[in-house]
Write a structure and sequence with these properties.
With 291 residues, the chain is α/β, with parallel strands linked by helices. It has a single domain, classed as Metal-dependent hydrolases (TIM Barrel, Alpha-Beta Barrel). The chain is built from eleven helices and ten strands. The strands form three sheets. The protein has a five-stranded parallel beta sheet, covered by helices on one side. The longest helix has 17 residues. Bound molecules: zinc ion (2 copies).
């Protein structure tokens, strides 16, 4: 069993160090482990400043803006400078544990257009083995633009659709984390949701990009959607479509603390895959130096 979706305390909302995660993964018999922190972004404050006007729309939005500006990253991602220490730590642990487990360095990235050249550089540098697409925000990482928020507007669903397709076309990513995140704040799986889901699955299939069934969505428990109880993401409506299209499916633990590696979640993920007749693959394509 492999897992390429691992966070640590460095993202500001996780617990446990890189080594804690490795030891927990080893106990569960994981053979390949990838670290995929929310990608640290250079000139983050300058990028955030562009969202200032938008953040004024709500008190919550403004507070999230101020917090992100002060902390220069957390609660969402590590400050840019910390990436040096993180990558150094991963490299050291890779050697320390090489006889027991294969470690990869990755990052989880939003489709933020201004940062696409930077993502490419990360892969080119050889320091990063792979990137996964985890598209949490529309344009700027502030709460009003969060795709997982309640009562997601039609406009935001359309923006999500647009961004996901554009992100698939970049060829930068090794897989798509929680491709159904937009369904988290949606109550009815209507025609628009159906169209967006079909398009994402079809395009991902065309570009040989695996889709993830994400344990994080399962850890949130069930919610009601179109009269059925489903996970807010790793959503049955979405993955029935992925099953029909025949997408490649990868399991992602989306670990945020060492205990997130556990037998129970593996059982749930495997059961979900079986029930929806998903085509589960075990490993992903590394993109290092391809660009
Ligand atoms: Zn994510
Ligand atoms: Zn994640």
């Amino acid at each position: 069993m492999n897992n390429y979706h691992t966070h640590t305390y460095r993202c500001g909302h996780g617990k446990g160090s890189e080594e804690d995660m490795i030891q927990s993964a080893l106990k569960l018999g994981i053979t390949e482990l990838g670290f995929s922190e929310h990608v640290p972004l250079p000139n983050y404050r300058r990028f955030l400043m562009k969202s200032f006007v938008h953040s004024l729309k709500s008190l919550h939005g403004f507070c999230s803006f101020v917090r992100a500006m002060i902390l220069n990253g957390p609660h969402m991602r590590m400050p840019y400078q910390m990436h040096i220490e993180h990558e150094k730590t991963v490299k050291e642990l890779k050697h320390k544990y090489e006889s027991q487990i294969t470690i990869y360095q990755g990052y989880e990235c939003e489709y933020f257009e201004p940062y696409l050249p930077y993502y490419r550089e990360l892969l080119k540098s050889g320091e990063v083995d792979y990137l996964i697409l985890g598209h949490h925000f529309d344009k700027y990482p502030i709460s009003d633009y969060y795709y997982g928020k309640k009562h997601l507007s039609k406009k935001m669903i359309i923006d999500y659709h647009h961004d996901m397709i554009a992100a698939i076309h970049t060829g930068l990513f090794s897989y798509i984390a929680h491709p159904d995140l937009f369904l988290m704040g949606v109550e009815e799986f209507d025609e628009l949701c159906q169209k967006v889901s079909y398009d994402i699955c079809l395009e991902a299939k065309k570009y040989h990009l695996p889709l993830e069934i994400n344990a994080g969505g399962m850890r949130r428990g069930f919610k009601k959607m179109s009269g059925e109880f489903v996970y807010p993401y790793t959503n049955q409506f979405f993955f029935q479509i992925a099953s029909e299209i025949g997408n490649e499916i990868i399991i992602g633990f989306d670990v945020h603390q060492p205990q997130d590696f556990n037998e129970m979640i593996i059982l749930k993920l495997r059961e979900f895959a079986r029930e929806n007749q998903l085509n589960v693959i075990e490993s992903i394509e590394m993109k290092e130096k391809e660009f």
